[in-house]
Amino acid sequence: MRQNFIGMVVSNAMQKTIKVKVISQKVHPIVLKTMKTHKNYLAHDENETCKLGDVVRIEACRPLSKHKHFSVAEVIRSAKDASTTTTTTA
How far apart are the C-alpha atoms of 71 and 60, rounded to whole Å? Predict the structure, then answer.
C-alpha cells in the first residue's frame, strides 16, 4: 500500500506541480498537549486541474524530480464547493 496524505492546495504557480499543506496532530512528550504541525509536499498534477484551496489526496510515487515524490490521486473537495459550505450567516 502506498503512502497517502490528505491536504489543501496552497500553491499552483508551477507547471504541472502543486504544493499541498498536510496538517497532522502530535502529542507533545512533556506537556502532553496535542499540537498541530504541518508539512508541505510538492505533488505532480498532470492535467493541472487543482486550484488554490482544493482538498486533495496525494499518493507516493517514484521520484519525479529532486523534491517531487507524490502525485495527485483525487480531488476530494474543490475550492468553490468549500466556499459555499463555509459561508453561513449567523
Answer: 6
